[in-house]
Amino acid sequence: MQHSLSIQARFRPEVIERILRVVRHRGFELYALNMTQCQNNENIHIHLTVSSKRSVNLLSAQLSKLIDISYVEIQQ
């Protein structure tokens, strides 16, 4: 089953690597990733599409614990 997540994070070189590592370690498969830089150049908005039989709430909870992540929202 596919799930979409919207993530707001501080713009740091390592933040994408951290997000992708959590996605992989939690057993989710990445289908799409779109990143845009916000106008203030300090934050980025990331839209992820992932797939797994696991609950997307597990992934959302783990991502929100990462440093530099402001919020994680599950898109319906």
From TrEMBL:
EC number in record: 2.2.1.6
This protein's UniProt keywords: Transferase
Positions in coiled-coil regions: none
SUPFAM superfamilies, A to Z: ACT-like (SSF55021)
InterPro entries given in the database record: ACT-like_dom_sf
Gene Ontology terms for molecular function: acetolactate synthase activity
Superkingdom to which the source organism belongs: Bacteria
Alphabetized Pfam families for the sequence: ACT_5 (PF13710)
Protein name, per record: Acetolactate synthase isozyme 2 small subunit
